[in-house]
Amino acid sequence: MPQIKVYHPPGTAPGTLVTAEPSGTLSIRLIDYTTHEVVERMLDDAAECRPYLARDSRTWIQVNGRPDADTLRALGAHFGLHELALEDVINLGQRPKVEIDEDQVFMILALPGYRDGVLELTQVSLFAGEGYVVSFCPLEEDPFEPIRKRLRASVNRLRTRGADYLLYALIDFVVDAAFPLIDEISERIEAIEDDLLENPDAETLAEIHAVRRDLLLLRRGLWPQRDAIHMLIREGSELIEERTQPYLRDCHDHSVQIMDLLESFRDMSSSLLDVYLSSISQRTNDIMRVLTLIATIFIPLTFIVGLYGMNFQHPTSPWAMPELHWYYGYPFVWAVMLTVVGGMLWYFKRKGWL
Question: Whole-prediction pTM value?
Fold first, then answer.
């Protein structure tokens, strides 16, 4: 689904929530869990989450699709979400970042993925507080089903830790989503290299530009994401336990590794473009060499047939063409021309031009 951006006209008050045209289905899912149980249900209204916030449990509110302004205000009222943060949620295409307050952590991440063959960066907005996490994803389909499966399992670290560990799990999921895409880009680069060696054409050039465009898009979205995770680790928060810090550092290591791979692939794609241009130039030179050899071979033949095509003859003139009356004149000319062609081909071969 394309990311629809909403722009406020100049002079609009900060925090104003303006919703784009509705697109798709909005779903609000609640997952409330403790070490011993998991409650999972769909919500029709944001107020239905209030009883779960009073429990001694961890609550995850998962919003999929484009929420309207009223839904955002209701969730903001229940969880104390800042109006400026809600404005960032509804206006897609924000740069990945992190904002740390005393009682809440707000993050915007970029979830990469191919949809209908086109690479897109989907904005994922996360709010984490004492005992809760609220996530917003504009996609109708749920990208976080693997995390919910982990929560449904009877015994795992996710069930026994606090909401900060759930925040880490969501961050880790978004960061690691880039690895399959990088593997796919690596395979595309290898295929382009094979095409460059065999028969580069316009489709090869188009694929090179497509790879470069995807790498640029990934770099533009994942570079600030790495910085946001680093800032979360460096600044810290009372909401994030000390034992969760190593996992966040592992997320940061993964993001650094991804950026290193992207930089390497970007250099490779630039080299592929140079190789393509060199291959095209070399192929053009080969074609021109063959055409030049053909033209060179036909130059003396053209001279010979042009000379005998003049047909100057006179019964008594000493300057008439005597070959016009030779009995074997025609095969003689053919023999001369074939000898010239054979001699030129032998010479070209000896010089290495063939």
Answer: 0.77
